[in-house]
Amino acid sequence: MDLYLVLGLEREATVGDIKRAYRRLARRFHPDINPGDRRAALQFGQIAEAYETLSDPERRRRYDATGAAGGAQKTSAYGFEGFDFSASVSGAAASTFGDLFADLFQSGRAGRQEPVAERGADLHNAITISFEEAVRGSQRRVTVTRQVHCRACRGAGWLPVAEGRCSHCHGAGTVKAVRGHMVFSQPCAQCGGARG
Questions:
Q1: In a domain, 84, yes or no
Q2: Angle between helix 15-29 and 38-55 (nearest 10)
């Protein structure tokens, strides 16, 4: 089996050419797109093996020298286990691997710029209108309850208040008394041990 022919490539193909050919063929022969088709599954296994061998520079060099895939481990999906390719059935508007990777790289760029606030959950409200209102149109006032941060505490849940310390125990809550070599600790008589 010629791995270059499996991917439909010439021996001079670049790594980029190999990746593009693999993506194109994987979408066409993936078992999720062809459920129950043993021939497509077998062909997909060959495509995965060809990609694994030719995309790795060392394994490709050995294959070019000996003509044997040597060391290529057979995998059924090369990292696409459980991936749903069924979106491609919907036609040209379906997303592709390129879209997937473009989204990943765009989100990486966005992380380096200013942080973007996450969009919250959609709000839903059920309203009953008559048929006449639906035909002619109408306006309704809707009350929406939402959670916002408290202006006073800024969402912390507590107010930062200047601490008033007890002048007698200095906020310790206890007063120490020394008698000889012994130190006695007792609650502050002024604040009652409330630490201020």
A1: yes
A2: 170
Phi, psi of 3 (to 5 degrees): -65, -30
Which secondary structure element, helix H or strand E, spans residue 97, and what is its range?
Answer: helix 97-112
Q: Pick the closest to residue 187 from 175, 196, 172 (CA basis).
A: 175
Determine phi and psi for 176, rounding to 5 degrees: -105, 140
Q: Can you say whether residue 70 is alpha, beta or left, with left for phi > 0 and alpha for psi between -120 and 50 degrees?
A: left
Burial 124-138 (b: 16+ CB within 10 A, else e): eeeeeeeeeeeeeee
Q: Which residue matches tokens 């765009």? A: 106
Query: What domain range includes position 103?
Result: 3-110
Q: What are the pLDDT digits (tens) for 82-126?
A: 454 544 444 444 455 555 555 555 554 444 555 566 676 777 778
Asked if 101 and 182 sit in the same domain, the reply is no
Total of domains in the chain: 2
Is the residue at 131 inside a domain?
Answer: no
Burial bucket for residue 142 (CB in 10 Å: 0-12, 13-18, 19+): exposed
Least confident range from 16-25, 71-80, 105-114: namely: 71-80
Q: Which two tokens stand for residue 51?
A: 């990609």
